[in-house]
Structure formats: C-alpha cells, structure tokens
Write a structure and sequence with these properties.
Number of helices of chain A: 11
CATH class of the largest domain in chain B: Mainly Alpha
CATH topology of the largest domain in chain B: MetI-like fold
Distance between the termini of chain B: 22 Å
CATH superfamily of the largest domain in chain B: MetI-like
Low-confidence stretches of chain A: none
Strand content of chain B: under 5%
Shape of chain A: flat
Low-confidence stretches of chain B: none
Order of helices and strands of chain A: HHHHHHHHHHH
Structural class of chain A: mainly alpha
Shape of chain B: elongated
CATH class of the largest domain in chain A: Mainly Alpha
Mean pLDDT of chain B: 84
Helix content of chain B: over 70%
Order of helices and strands of chain B: HHHHHHHHHHHHH
Strand content of chain A: under 5%
Oligomer: heterodimer
Structural class of chain B: mainly alpha
Number of strands of chain A: 0
Largest sheet of chain A: none
C-alpha cells in the first residue's frame, strides 16, 4: 500500500514536471498564458500528490487533512469565514493599516522640513522596522480590550515604521537640479512638495505600503491569539487547533492567503496607476 | 558618526514621550492606590474618577505624579522599571535559573538560529535550481513571490500541533517555523543576486572558455553576495519573530514568547515589557552582527552593498 502510494505520487510528479519542462523549453515559453499555466500546473500537481498521499497512506486528518476536505469545509463554512474575515481583515487590519499609514505620512512630512530630524529618523525607523513589534500585542490587548481596536493598534504600530522610512527616503529622492528648477519657477515649499517631491517619492511610498500589507495581516491575526471576541481569524485558528479541526485551520489559512494576495495586488494596481511614469512600471 | 546626534535626539524624544505618557496612563491605578493609603485624591470616589480621562485626572492630582512611576503593576511601566527588571533578570540571576532572561533568550535564540540555518541553506539551493532550470523558474518562482504576500505566521500554531501529533516536540517545531519564514526572502534575494551579472560579464567568461561551473563559482556566486546579505538581514529578524510567535499559542514554558505570556496572564506588565525589550535587543544584535559581517566581507571582496 505504501509502495503504490509513493509510486503513484512520484508518477504524477513526473508527469506534471514533464509537461512543465516541455512548455518551459518550447517556443511559447515567453507568452502570457505559459507564464500563468506553468505555475498553475505545478500547484495542481502538488495538490493532487497531497490528496493521493493523504488518502492512500491513511494519514490522520488530525495531522494533515486532504485538500478536498479543506475545500468542502471552506464551502460549508462560508458564513463563519466571512464573519472572521470582516472582524480581522476589514475591522482590525484595514483600520490599523490606514491609521498607521496616515500617521507615518504625517510624521514624514513634518520631519522632512528638518534635515537634522530626517537623518535621525531614517536609522531609528529602519531599526524599529526590524524589531519583533508583534510582541506588543498582549500589551495593546490589555489597554484597549479584546475587540478589534487593540488589533488595529498593533497593526498601526507595525506598519508605521516601514512606511515612515520609505516616505522619508522618498522625499529625499529629488536632485538639486530638479529643486532648483522649481525655485526658478518661483515655487514655494508647498507647491514644490505637492508637484515635485511627493510624486517623486511615490515609488518609495508604495514600496513601503506593499511591505506593510503582509505585516498588517500578520499583526491582526497574531494579536487575536492573545485575546479576542469569539470571532476572528486568529481566534478561529487557535480554537480550531485546540479542537484538532485542522481542516478549519487550513480553510482560514486559505482565506488569509487570498486576502493577503488581494490586498497586495490592490496596492500594486494603485501603484501602477500612480507611478505609471516610473521605469519599473514600463511594459 | 555624522548622524549620531540626530539619532540620539530621536531616541531621546521617544523616551521623553514614553516618560510623559506614564503619568496619564497610570493615573487611575495610582489614585485608587493613594486612596487606600489615605492620601487625599480628588475626586474621591473611583466611580467619579472614571468620568475623567487620564490627563484630566493627572492635572487635578499633581501631587501623585511621583507615585505613577513606582507602581508594582502599572498599565505602562516607566523606562527605569523595565531597565531594572532587565538588569535584575539578565545580570543578577544565574543563567540556568528559570527566572533568567538569558536562559529564556537562549531557548528562543537556539530555535531561531537552527531554523535560520536550515531555511537559508534550502533557500540558496532552491535559488541555484531556479537560476539554472527554466522549468523550475517558471513553476516555483511565482509561488515564492506570492508567498511573500501571505501571512505565513498564521500557520505557526498548526505546524506545532501537526509536528506534535507525529511526536516531534521541543526545539524542532519552532525551528521549522523560523526556517519557513527565512526561506522565501532568501530564495527571492538569491535569485536576483545570481542573475545580477550582466550579459557583458557572462560573455567575457565565455570568451575565456569558462565552464558553467566556473561561471557559477567565479562570477554568479560572488556577484550574489550583496543580495544574500540583504536577504539574510530580513531573514534573521523574520526567524526570530517566528520563533517567538511559535511559543505563544502552545503554552511553551520557556523562551521570550513564553515570558511575555506569563507576564500577560499573571498581570505582571513589567515582565512582559522586559521580555519584549530583550527580544528587541536580540533582534537588533542579530541584524547588527550580519551588518558587520556584510561590511567586512564586502570590503574584502571590493564590493558595495546591494
């Protein structure tokens, strides 16, 4: 039994790989659909192998549920998953993300008027961005209660530093030639900021915003491990792990993955619209 | 050194903000305590005090300012309390003691380093595979990039339970999470690094009649070093966060995460804060260590940071 399971899984792996290798070395490799098809085949191969190995080796669902069980659980629990999504992503992560980003822009623009402060903020902010800020979650839960407000606060602090550092760095990214040109036009501080320096900073700002999307989800989910109302993705993950309902955990992880990719994709799309002039956006 | 003074100013401003915040944050607790010690407080009932914000109450009870800095269980500990707790648990306790932060730090750090070594090693191998195999590049790379937008840390509790169910406990489950978190940044960075030599450089090696292996060892690998260090610095802090979070939902008894949880559950905020700062210092030390190695290596190689 074990033998057939492993052999059939290897056969599927080989078949998937063969198809991908053929596509990758053929003349259509650079086309758009090949770029989508190859990773799709790869992902599908892994899923089929997973399903096959779990079923044939009779792995306990307490250790690893098969993908079909996760999918049916996902389809059956959509109301709960949606409620968790709203609680964690919309209320917790989004509120915190927006507040953290606005605070970071505000501080960056205030600090930007002084070269002295900028030189202080860049290293300190970069240092803070590398720290395990998610560990402040128990403190915020204690201060603000277990509902989404405390999650938004953790998220806000987590996203603040990467966005701050990138915004401050971006605002410094104009050459003295460009600033001199603005001066010859008789532009003051605010019109230089709005017409030259903020647009020039946009690639940096969006870099920070994109890094922060993942941080926001991590902060909102992990903070719920420390205390939450009886709804939310982190709450559901920790209680389902306790009940050994691993298919539910995986369903929540699918939601988290979809939300993370969609959030990042949204930011990348806005970036493309705002910084269409930047070399990295040229098609 | 030019930026030393600005940095100190910013750090000083943050500290000052913290010290000032202690008064309004702790005022309600302090007022309750003061009343029990028969010190005059206005207003004189807890219910009436709830009507006031922390700042409002502080302004009416300026004589209690000193007490807000000396509570046993403050809402916001003052910097000197956290500092004293850290000095007490790092320097004064024997490092084998369960109350020593060095002991807890080592528990977390060993899982972090083991996981980081595994994750980095596998990441470099996969990156080499991706650079040399077109099919691997097209199948794996999109997933590696997409995985960076996914909150992988949410998997932590499940990985612990999954590995626990097949009998793996202790150091290894935490190391697996650390490895997982440092793996993808290293893959993405190394692929970029191994591809950084331009066509001119590759052509030059071809005119030397260099074999692909020589091109790898003499051009691609050295060229990728700045990118590797950039990824290592991201990876090591991700690994540490992973190890800490892995300790949280599982009721671990040792480690920074366990220490934060103990402080949280037994109402000892100073313990939580001390663990948090110790974790931050550890993260800073690890990143700093890699920066020093990076600086030294790149100088020896005559390169600049990516």
């Amino acid at each position: 039994m074990t033998g057939t399971a492993i052999i059939s899984a290897l056969a599927i792996w080989a078949a998937g790989w063969f198809v991908n290798a053929r596509i990758a070395t053929s003349s259509v490799a650079e086309t758009r659909w090949a770029r989508l098809l190859v990773p799709a085949i790869f992902g599908l191969t892994l899923l089929i192998m997973w399903e096959l190995l779990v079923r044939l080796l009779e792995v306990s669902p307490v250790i690893l549920p098969p993908p079909t069980a996760i999918a049916s659980r996902f389809a059956g629990e959509i109301p709960i998953l949606w409620a968790d999504f709203v609680q964690t992503i919309i209320k917790g992560a989004m509120t915190g993300y927006i507040l953290g980003a606005l605070a970071a822009f505000g501080v960056a623009i205030l600090a930007d008027r002084s070269d002295f402060l900028t030189r202080g903020i860049l290293p300190v902010g970069g240092f803070m961005a590398a720290l395990p800020i998610v560990g402040t979650a128990p403190i915020f839960v204690k201060w603000l209660g277990s509902d989404w407000e405390s999650k938004a606060a953790v998220v806000g602090v987590m996203v603040f530093f990467p966005i701050l550092v990138n915004t401050v760095a971006g605002l410094r990214d104009t050459t003295s030639m460009q600033r001199d040109l603005m001066r010859t036009y008789g532009a003051g501080y605010w019109s230089t900021l709005l017409k030259l320096r903020l647009p020039a900073a946009m690639p940096f700002i969006f870099n920070g915003l994109k890094i922060a999307t993942t941080l926001a989800l991590i902060g909102a989910i992990v903070a719920e491990f420390f205390g939450s109302p009886t709804v939310g993705m982190g709450f559901r993950i920790s209680t389902s792990v306790g009940q050994l309902a691993l298919d539910m955990v995986w369903a929540e992880i699918v939601v988290a993955a979809l939300a993370g990719s969609a959030f990042y994709g949204l930011m990348a799309w806005i970036e493309g619209r705002v910084t269409f002039w930047h070399p990295s956006q040229r098609k | 050194m030019k930026s030393l003074l600005p940095v100190l100013t910013v750090v000083g401003a943050i500290l000052l903000f913290w010290i000032v915040s202690v008064v309004p944050m702790n005022m309600h607790l302090t007022a309750d305590l003061a009343q029990r010690q028969d010190i005059a407080v206005s207003p004189d009932t807890p219910a009436a005090r709830q009507e006031y914000s922390g700042i409002g109450l502080a302004l009416r009870n300026t004589h209690l300012f000193g007490m807000t800095y000396a509570l046993d269980r403050p809402r916001l500990p003052s910097p000197h309390q956290v500092g004293l707790e850290m000095w007490d648990t790092i320097a004064l306790k024997k490092i084998t003691s369960r109350r020593s932060l060095v002991y807890h730090g080592w528990v977390t750090l060993s899982a972090t380093l083991l996981g980081f070594a595994i994750g980095t090693g596998l990441g470099i191998l996969l990156a080499v595979g991706i650079v040399y195999n077109k099919a691997m590049d097209m199948s794996v790379m999109p997933w590696a990039i997409a995985s960076q937008t996914i909150p992988i840390l949410a998997l932590a509790p499940m990985i612990i339970v999954m590995l626990g169910a097949i009998g793996i406990q202790g150091l290894l489950p935490k190391a697996v999470i650390s490895a997982y978190l440092s793996f993808f940044p290293v893959v993405v960075g190394m692929v970029k690094g191994l591809r950084s030599p331009d066509g001119m450089q590759l052509d030059l090696l071809r005119t030397y009649h260099a074999s692909p292996a020589q091109a790898f060892w003499k051009l691609r690998l050295p060229a990728s070093v700045p990118y590797l260090f950039a990824s290592l610095k991201i990876g090591i802090s991700a690994s540490l966060v992973g190890a800490i979070v892995a300790e949280l939902p599982t009721g671990a008894r040792a480690g920074f995460g366990a220490r934060m949880l103990v402080g949280d559950q037994y109402g000892q905020p100073i313990v939580t804060w001390a663990a948090l700062f110790a974790a931050a210092i550890t993260a800073a030390a690890l990143v700093g260590l890699f920066s020093v190695i990076e600086c030294w290596t790149l100088r020896r190689m005559g390169m600049r940071a990516a």
